[in-house]
Every structure is written in structure tokens, then in C-alpha cells.
Amino acid sequence: MDRKSMKLLVITGLSGAGKTQALQCLEDQGYFCIDNLPPAFIIKFVELCAQSQGKVSKAAIVCDLRGGEFFTSLAEALKDLEREGFLYEILFLEASDEALVRRYKESRRRHPQSPQGRILDGINEERKLLAELRGQAHKIMDTSNLLSQQLRQQITELYGEGRGQGQLAISVISFGFKYGVPLDADLLIDVRFLPNPFYVEELRPLTGEHPLVQNYIFNNPVAQEFMNRYLHLLEYILPYYVKEGKSHLVIGVGCTGGQHRSVAIAERIGLFLNEQHYTMSVKHRDAARNRKGEKAR
């Protein structure tokens, strides 16, 4: 097998961020998976896969701080892969301190970096130790607000069989700035300059998926002109992302609360991408929480 046709995914990141679940999902996608592989064995493992006469064409391994002193050799192991002509991708999983503490308390497990101390101390120490590796990652995924099924869905979108080689999978995410910007967004759009349906009483309880809200927004000439220009920009730049080998692109669309304007714009972008035959998904991160009674504005 050509070494460049061997697909290796190195999964790493914070303890409790979902690495095991991600590995299980990849195993379901046909990957040959190994958890907690010492970095010194990576090159031997990949060579064995390459010699399998096509039986193992894609593999995923988890390397993290559970490996103790062995983990420090990961940087050298990755350099060995490059010298030998093997291609690889690093997926780094992380989550907020609050989410990680909650998960550890629910599982009643000790943190590997603070077995006798506070969980938060271990999390902070782990962040420091992994900072350089995080900077080398090809993809960073924040799992703070993801349920298990949502994590599996994102892993499948990124690395599943449904995505052909050389294709670009695009995720469009609407959000509210008051709840924070999506950490994994590649392109960000701030649409708070558009007319806000929140101030129209009959539109306030609706979301940007409703035709009345969409009509209110897109009947405005500024919104029409903006949408036309932005879609033309996407039409121009997306082929270049494909040409550069980017596998996944996240477009974040934000308004104040993530209920009206960002949702409507994200839906319109999704329609365009679907017409262009891209593998895509549209998610509305904050629309539901605003419909539970919180003020959007």
C-alpha cells in the first residue's frame, strides 16, 4: 500500500473530553482503533497497517497523558511519521472546566494529573502540559455542550464513510454572542447589524426558521444585499479550501441571542450549500434556550 493512502488519526486532548467515545465511533466507521498507545509504538503500528495489503487502510489511536513518561515522546514519534512519508491528522478534544469537573464527579474517577488532589488542579495542570500539542492539532473540538449522540454525529460528519476523499464537509452553526462564540468556528459572521425581529411582538416567540421571521429579515434591502454578497464569497472561496485539502469547515453565524437573525441567515446558507452539493449540516446552538423564556434581543 502507498504510504500516502494510509489514513491515520491521532486523538488526544483533555481527560474527560470524550476521547473514548470518539474512538468507539470511529471503530463503528471501520477504523482500526487502539486506545492509549505509547507513542514509541506508533511508527511500528503504522508500518504494520501499511503492510496489511489494504486490509487496514485507516486507523485511529488515542495518545494522552495516561501514558505517563511515555507520552513525552509523542512529538518525536510524529516527526518519525513525517520522515517516513506517512500522513496523519491530530484531533484534539477539550471541554470547559465546569463540564470536566461535572463529568469527573458523575463518574467518581480521579483525575490522572491530580490523583490525590482537587479535580480542577489536575485539569489546569493537564491544560498546561498539552498546550503545545493543542497548537499542532489539525482539528480542535469542544465537547462541553455535546451529548454523546451529538459527539458521535460530529465525528461521523468529520471522518465517516459518507465523506468522500477530497470533499469538504461544512457545518453551519447559529449562535448568540451573549452565550459565547463557538470555539471551533473557522469563519465567523456577525449579523447584529440586521433588523431584529425580537422587537416585533408577534415575531418575538418564533425563531429564524419560521417563514414570518425570514420574510421580515429578508425583505430588508440590506439583508438581501448582504446575503447575495456573502453567498458569492462562499462560492469563490470554498473550492480553494477543497484544493488545500481541508476536510471540515465550520461557519459560525451570530446575533445577540441566537434566536432570530443568525438562525435565518444560517438556514439560507445551508440551502445554498445544499444546492452546491456540499456535505453539510445546519445546527442552531442557542435557539432552544431562548424559547424557554430567556430574552434574546
Automatic annotation (TrEMBL):
- Answer whether the UniProt record assigns the keyword Coiled coil to this protein: no
Domain annotation RapZ C-terminal: ranges: 169-287
Identify one Pfam family in the record. Answer: PapZ_C
Q: Which residues bind ATP?
A: G13, L14, S15, G16, A17, G18, K19, T20
Give the RapZ-like N-terminal domain ranges. Answer: 6-159
Q: Identify the SUPFAM superfamilies for this entry.
A: P-loop containing nucleoside triphosphate hydrolases
| Domain of life the protein comes from | Bacteria
Which keywords appear in this protein's UniProt record, sorted alphabetically?
ATP-binding, GTP-binding, Nucleotide-binding
Protein name stated in the entry: GlmZ(SRNA)-inactivating NTPase
Originating organism? Desulfitobacterium metallireducens DSM 15288
